[in-house]
């Protein structure tokens, strides 16, 4: 029964905590799993972390003492500590970008019962003394529909807190918690902390802008013609047109390679490295040349691949390997080193034999 005796209520809460510790952990794991599944099925973008924790017993008591005890006792309102700890079970979700936070929040509020929302982003931005971590905090509980399912019934009365942050906000929160006695530090240190906080905020914004600019470049590469006119000796007009052709980059490489290898998923970081390999051998290599190179040589390279894999079933021959061989065929003077010594010798030997057989 609720009372105004803090020592008694601490003891009651301690017994409650210990007797339910196992179920708290099970509820935490269940919420992490359910939220992970919901976000995977929703169009929220990449989420880098979903993790849970059960708040330490003594931390719960300290929070109650700090936030609620004085007011309740002044009003002579009996209490049970457990009724005031909404974050005993906590879930943290870390997104890549700040503008994903409201999208994730909307998904969660659509599937769970919302008890409270605390927007620490708005709270920090509305104050002059603005150091401190940002993020969106939701106090949630199972919806009536979920609570009615047998597998979730044990957690029907287990509310939980969700903290949603961007990657940059999460990094700042770690540093923020390491700054000791923030309310008591001198003004010059407060100013330095505010500058650092602003730099993190700027990084968050720039990270998002770079993502948007990258997406725009990708869109441009997708709608642009796969091939531009080549710079050759066919006349001044054609040369002038060819002068505007773009040097190959990761974006137009994906457009062209995707056209020839429709069933292969090119990973961003591998594309970036591969394009750099090409440009190190010819810094002015154009996307039109890449298209011509694949158009003219891919059939020959595929014949070689089939021959090689028939004799060596355990080998692999990826699209990247195919493109390397096409570049070698396209211009051995420029791209002789695109293949390492042994593959180059093996390919040259096969070419010589194939040409001899067809003579």
TrEMBL record:
InterPro entries registered for this protein in UniProt: NT_sf (IPR043519), RelA_SpoT (IPR007685)
Pfam families according to UniProt: RelA_SpoT
Domain RelA/SpoT: 52-187
Protein name: (P)ppGpp synthetase
Native organism: Geomobilimonas luticola
């Amino acid at each position: 029964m609720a009372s105004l005796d803090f020592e008694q209520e601490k003891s009651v809460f301690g017994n409650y905590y210990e007797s339910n510790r196992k179920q708290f952990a099970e509820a935490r794991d269940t919420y992490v799993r359910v939220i992970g599944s919901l976000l995977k099925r929703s169009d929220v973008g990449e989420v880098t972390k979903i993790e849970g924790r059960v708040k330490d017993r003594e931390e719960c008591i300290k929070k109650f003492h700090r936030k609620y005890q004085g007011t309740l006792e002044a009003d002579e309102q009996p209490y049970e500590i457990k009724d005031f700890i909404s974050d005993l079970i906590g879930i943290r979700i870390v997104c890549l970008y700040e503008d994903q936070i409201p999208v994730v929040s909307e998904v969660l509020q659509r599937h769970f019962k919302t008890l409270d929302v605390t927007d620490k982003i708005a709270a920090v931005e509305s104050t002059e003394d603005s150091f401190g971590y940002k993020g969106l905090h939701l106090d949630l509980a199972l919806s009536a529909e979920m609570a009615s399912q047998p597998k979730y019934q044990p957690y029907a009365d287990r509310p939980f807190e969700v903290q949603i942050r961007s990657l940059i906000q999460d990094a700042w929160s770690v540093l923020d918690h390491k700054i000791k006695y923030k309310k008591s530090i001198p003004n010059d240190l407060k100013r330095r902390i505010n500058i650092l906080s602003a730099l993190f905020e700027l990084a968050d914004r720039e990270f998002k802008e770079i993502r948007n600019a990258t997406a725009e470049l990708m869109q441009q590469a997708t709608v642009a013609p796969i091939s531009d006119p080549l710079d050759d000796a066919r006349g001044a007009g054609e040369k002038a047109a060819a002068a505007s052709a773009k040097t190959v980059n990761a974006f137009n490489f994906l457009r062209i390679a995707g056209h020839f290898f429709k069933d292969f998923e090119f990973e961003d970081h591998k594309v970036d490295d591969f394009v750099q390999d090409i440009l190190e051998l010819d810094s002015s290599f154009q996307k039109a040349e890449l298209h011509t190179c694949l158009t003219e040589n891919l059939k020959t390279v595929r014949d070689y691949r089939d021959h090689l894999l028939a004799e060596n079933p355990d080998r692999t021959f990826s699209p990247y390997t195919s493109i390397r061989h096409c570049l070698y065929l396209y211009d051995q003077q420029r791209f002789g080193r695109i293949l390492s010594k042994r593959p180059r010798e093996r390919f040259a030997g096969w070419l010589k034999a194939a040409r001899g057989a067809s003579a």
